[in-house]
Please model this.
Amino acid sequence: MLIRWVLAAIHLLALGVGLGAVWARGRALRNPLDAPGLRRVFYADTWWGIAAMLWIGTGLARAFGGFEKGSAYYLHNHLFWAKMGLLALILVLELSPMVTLIRWRVQLGRGQQPDTHAAARIASISFVQAVLVVLMTLAATAMARGYGVPRT
Ligand code: HEM
Model:
């Protein structure tokens, strides 16, 4: 099925984009935050957001749209729930960077220099999120190969 392949391809490409973007966001936040430095942060942050939308959109379609092993397989798979738990953690961790970076974008747009004292904290959060993405990949690849199914 073409759609199955397209969903799988987008899901995996989002991994490449998202992991690179969140790492780049962390690195950019540890560099000087003048106007070009801030633009590098926003660029990486935008791609991180795009990757998240692609992951969640294609992931939900694959899990519950009947394109892969069917909803029942995933809902009874421990590694699927581990993967969802890690995703939830990434999303909770993202709340503060999201609010802060939106504020910075608005301030820069108005020609004001944002107060960037939270940069080091958001950089650390970004690196933790990169590690969580790696753990999600370990859970996903095991789940796809039949691990995590409860013994009957
Ligand atoms: C709501 C969010 C998500 C859902 C519902 C979801 C669901 C799925 C499903 C159903 C598959 C196919 C597994 C199979 O072949 O049986 C899959 C594969 C995969 N997912 Fe996700 N996913 C989500 C987010 C993510 C994220 C954020 C990552 C980032 C690490 C990710 C990484 C992967 C990888 C690497 C595979 C490929 C596994 C393989 O074929 O070896 N997923 N996902």
Q: What stands out?
A: The mean pLDDT is 97. The chain has five helices and no strands. The CA atoms of residues 5 and 67 lie 9 Å apart. The pocket of protoporphyrin IX containing FE is lined by residues 11-12, 15, 55-56, 59-60, 62-63, 68-69, 74, 87, 133, 136-137, 140-141, 144 (CB under 6 Å).
